[in-house]
């Protein structure tokens, strides 16, 4: 087939003869993420976008760095449940069911929590030192959707009427909320930083 | 086995000998939902909770009633993609990708749109008369999570620090937002009304 | 990658940068199908063949137009269960289990019925006016197989011996049945019309 | 838990401590089926109904006995594709796509054919001696639906109007076809015999 | 699209217009495999590698030839459970659970056994004549991993320390074991022969 | 429903009203495993057996403790792929494909490797201090099968003929290998310790 290209799940597949051990390795799973942002946290997904070796394997990992009092902003993963293990620090964490019941708790080093697929969840570092967590997904492509960004930082903006009626506040409040989430701003860092890097290559 | 009970997917399964055509029927798919609420819309899911006959079938429907200018508040379905067809009226609709790009449009009668699984989406009736839509899910249990309720109307409340840091506003704004979503209030009507009825039986 | 082409599920995938809202829209879900055929009904699937936007979404819709006393001929969907909602009219409908038990009923406006995957089912308009139904599938590619066409209208014909022995009638009856289902004829309209259009493009 | 009962996929699961090798064995896969029926063939499914050991394994087998010139009547399997291998004899076999194209061929000993999920297919023994085939399914519960039985041998009967309009013949022909498929009659043997036995236990 | 190439699951898909009945046929399912090897058995998988027609069908078959006292060496199938039916002969067969419990038995002609996905299993011909079995998988690509080959016949060798510590024996024993499984040698025949042929084409 | 019991995937499901945050928590993910065994390593799965909260979530974690030069013995996971991240130490690791090709490498702190489902793999601590790794599975019930235990430590023993022929050595070598893997012995510690504890409760 010479120059032909094989694609599985929309991703290129190497010719088996060209595969090396390097295709199964990812080498930077302890480089601290930049927490110098408004929320003071940085989640780095190692999924099919960073690590093509997980294609068809149905599993991915993430590590989350927290500055003191840093927040991994309320978000959800559209395509996978998560197990989250605290490696360093003490955190307030929780998730919200589709009946709007909040399950929240304080996690210490060695504690593990499950966040079911697509439910909104968060973690807040309660300590005055950095914290660290590892987490896993039962999907090679779990995705991440930050709630605040999805509503107030979209390109283009969602129509005012949708937000004023949806959140039952006037346009000034909506504008105030939007102003916090411009492209140069904040929570977008959490989970977006790698996408930025990728789009520059 | 006499009185034994068979459960599939956590739901009771009738003895095949006791099954009748009624187990495959749902009879109220044209009863208008109550749109007399703050957002002016009402989505009525016909899924495994209302219609046990869809268990293991992997499909569900919903109809959405809109008062004039009514909003089906920004929400997502954790376990299924949606096809949404406008039966009456003209609507502004959209969804937000995990790159925070908004895809929005104006839908007229006969228009169909796809909302991918777990992405936040909405519809706003642009007309001064009632509107109606039918939609379908590739899951018998797609679920529904309203964004505003998930953040501001949980029981119990999410810790203030999570919301002030997550939305980058002060506690007064958070309190203002929360006050709109008390249990007696609003958008909870959208998708919650049936759950209330069920819990009373 | 320039001119490379990405395929998922055997279908072309657009470059994400080229995707627009139009890729998620289908615009003709209220154009009546042509019921001027022998059975007097026309089912129009909006699945991956007409609407590439449903690829990987696992959901599809169909609308069915019925002339007075029109029949949506006995058929099955090989790759998905169906929820069927009557929008206008009164119909006799049923499906047959793999134990050859018939579950049948009369459906009125607002009634919903489930047809399990791959079981033979039908609907007959009992009224002297047009009828209309919407239905949904838990698959982006449910397919449709008409029973009569599959047996008597194949290209080429199934060997006589299979049909005479299978239906326990002589060749004259088989020939009579076949003569009703030539390529210019009838029930093939139900579900075939769009395929014809597509193959001309 | 004493007397509690665990069910998976609607089937009883033994306590692991009570499991023996016998739970993984089926002992009669060479007992010829009774081909003394109108079609002269008998298919014996070894699936979850006869062999509980396949529960959750996603695989099943069948053997088909053919009398001379016997027919495995046109049928389909709603929940699994089939690989069919001729062990003894020569057969005419085929299946019909959802575009009503017939793919047919003559199979000899050692030939294997695939029948895709839910497409109508058949095999006819072309020889004057018995024939035998083994086949496999990628499902523990593939099911079997005979076309003629599903239309003409249901309990109760499908309404005449559906069949006269669906097959475009008058009621006399429908009645003639039905008369061949009474409960005491024929093709029902193919695939139904075991169900009868089971219901007597 | 002219010369474009469509790939599903990493395999080429023919243009539907070019598909013939031959694409659904495999013609050599009774050619005895070469059992002239150290173990005296030969398993011939008819899966997606030999028979592209099973792509997306989720099912495959295998036949296993046994010389007198021949062994189908301990192995596992990473991606599918197996049903195994004895066609000729008497065999000792078994599999080992993840609690290291052995379920073993003697199989006679007509006996069927299930081997769950990825558990190590084997069959040993107990007779002084050839034996034959057919088996099925609920996957089009079940794969096969021989235990001895996976440990002692890899290219390159696994580091000595892993094997001496893993099997708790000294290097001489490991070397003795490895010497039996050079590329020119034995059990590799079981399941590898076809791969060799394919790589030469 | 009073005392009724709901089971999903063969596991008890709590009544939603009785669910608390504790059902989503696992509290001992930093208790070092006992590496005082022949291989000098201990893998502790946190899957559905230890942590019922992962039922239906499709994800699990494991941590692996290594004594100096400790080995996580060659093993496989029948129902899930693995991502393995080194937290402390330097290791030699590898896996073997179904073509018996070894992919091996040296992993340092921060390195991540993928082990595909059901392929045999191992890690060996190359350092004179303890090492630690976290790993994740795309399954709530990945299982673990040690190769040496599965062949030489089964209850009861696999027939000698199978092992002498399968490994091409005489009975003395087999007996030597078996003697290392009695119930009081070694590699069984790796992954078996928790099962022992559970069976005592």
Automatic annotation (TrEMBL), chains A, B, C, D, E, F:
Gene3D superfamilies per UniProt: Jelly Rolls
Coiled-coil regions, chain positions: none
InterPro entries: Cupin_1 (IPR006045), Germin (IPR001929), Germin_Mn-BS (IPR019780), RmlC-like_jellyroll (IPR014710), RmlC_Cupin_sf (IPR011051)
GO MF annotation: an example: manganese ion binding
Superkingdom: Eukaryota
Residue ranges occupied by any Cupin type-1 domain in the UniProt entry: 27-175
TM ranges: none
Annotated residues for binding of Mn(2+): 75, 77, 82, 121
Main location: secreted
Positions of oxalate binding: 72, 77, 82
Keywords for the protein's UniProt record, in alphabetical order: Apoplast, Disulfide bond, Manganese, Metal-binding, Secreted
Compartments it resides in: Secreted, Extracellular space, Apoplast
One Gene Ontology cellular component annotation held by this UniProt entry: plasmodesma
Pfam families in alphabetical order: Cupin_1
Family according to the record: Belongs to the germin family.
Protein name, as recorded: Germin-like protein
Organism: Spinacia oleracea
GN (gene name): LOC110784569
